[in-house]
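All the exercises in this workshop are built on plain-text protein records. The record below serves as our worked example for the rest of this section.
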Amino acid sequence: MSLTPIPISDFRVALIYPTIKENVGGCTPPLALLGLATVLRDAGINVHLFDIDAFHGDRAALIHAVAAYDPSLLGFPVFYNTYDDVAVTLRDLRKSNVSCPVVLGGPEITANPENVHADFPDVSYLLAGEAEWTLRTLVQRLRERQDIDDIPGLSFQKGASWIINPIARFTDLDQVPFPDRGLLGEAYTQGRYWRLGQRGATDIMVSSRGCPYSCRFCFKVTHKASFRPSASVHAELDHVRRFGTRNIMFQDDLFVSNIKRVKAVLDPVDPAWGMRFKVRARVDTINDEICAYLVSKGVTGVTVGFESGSDRLLELMGKKTTVSDNYRAMEIMRRHGLKVFADMFFMYPGEDMESVKETMDFIFRSKPAYVNWGMFIPLPGTSITLELQEKGLLKGRYGVGQRPRVVYDYLTDSQRTELIHYVSSNMRRYNGSLRHVMLPNLVDIVTTAGPRQYRILGDLYWKRYRPQWTGIFHGGSQRR
């Protein structure tokens, strides 16, 4: 007897973002998951997005809401830092008698589906690559009870075998609808998503995918950049404006590529709209023409992946930029009044005290508005991670309840500890400094921060940096 399709109204998909994103810098909407939900909705599929930040971080409330929705399929994104949250949320949902099948997607599955399957052996489906159309196809086939064997990027159990289908290299963005913010409900309209120093709600947009560069620490599905049609980007800008949003962060891997592309996206923007933008760039794409144009269109901040202040480390990373390029870009952006948010990370293999001090020297001399810093993360599928694995210098991996450990065979344990302490103490001093960070941004913070932001700021700048502030008020100085 053949299986009958499930009525459309009875098949419900729950897409869940289980990891709290809110921190001192703000809280961003789950844009990729929102895009998937929009594609499913446009195909007539009953879908609901559950973002734990919309529940103020209350996992029990999220579990209750998902259970009440009574889904036919659960979907989670898996990133290197969400394994445990996915596992805990899925466990709690099972305890709440949500027993439907589960599909996992995201970069970790694209990089290594076998590892994810080992961590989640009871999960029915894994979906690698860009998933707008493949997820839609999977849901439609499950709803119609049709065969799923040929869906690109899908991994699934068939008999005693675990099948892994090749990924479809989807880069055509012409037909991809922009994410409908209405699917976020009150979490969006009531300003749950925000960024430090920006008035009111802040949203994120993506006008392109991919990056032509080959930095050794960065994982991408493809290095071929693909661009959304300008008309689609402009329609999305109108969409978010209708919700009253006036702050946009373009999260493209590389928004500032050339003046022609930048103008294609921002030309329709009227300064009278009162919109403020933040964009991403490389140091070698920054010039006076582009910066002047960005400012004329309401761009107030640029996030730049400087990564390091050491030429030796930049070469090891495959950045194809120099410290001289870093200083040049900083000088140009400062001349045009742009706030520079510097992405830096430390402890890349080869890092030592000399290279760390070079980076600190760059930071304290160039004085970016803020430094987004962290320690090296060996992301699955990157060339540096593969090299470390081949050399036996990476122990373990990212997974449920586990993290990898890089072996710095050229450092003693005490040298490594000293390096990490030196980095942490100096970066806390810099980002907590009245001179370098707080005073230049004080007007933005005071005039835009709401009660929630003030509470978070109080925790960051008073509790964490109180000893340092005392030193500043008594004539202390930065120590490098």
